Amino acid sequence: MGMTTPRVEADLGWALGRVARAHLRTAQDVVSGLPGGPRGYQVLAGLAGGPPRTQLVLARTLGVDRTVMTYLLDELEGAGLVERRPDPADRRARQVLLTETGRGRLCDLERRLRDAEDQLLAPLEPDERDVLRRLLQRLATDADGASPCQVAADIQAAETGGAC
């Protein structure tokens, strides 16, 4: 009796890869006009709620090199989406805050991303979508300690053959 070869569709890696690539394409379309694209979105999302963050803390939290973060913040600030000001606790550090324009843009992007995700997940029932999101979030936060920005950069690099 010979063993049967499992179908590729039953492979977790294949399924995760297909869904991740489809999500990345969709998300890139949504954030394409935003300075910094997906990283710019991560910065805006990272600034929403909570106390103001310094550039350095924000860079570390998102897993973005601090030099890259400076250029990214320059672009976002030039578009009126964030502002930097001296940290009252340490005048050498700079706090980064969302502007009202930035908060509005973030809300619009979040709505558009959720709509795009709902289209991607349309084959699932609404309660299944919620369960899938929760399970993936739990796996992602426990996987290997990689930041969301690094995960997105890794996927993009794999799709473009490593070109940045």
From TrEMBL:
UniProt superkingdom: Bacteria
Signal peptide limits: none
SUPFAM superfamilies: Winged helix' DNA-binding domain
Domain HTH marR-type span(s) in chain numbering: 9-141
Database matches in PANTHER family: HTH-TYPE TRANSCRIPTIONAL REPRESSOR YETL, TRANSCRIPTIONAL REGULATOR, MARR FAMILY
Protein name in UniProt: HTH marR-type domain-containing protein
Native source organism of the sequence: Actinomycetospora chlora
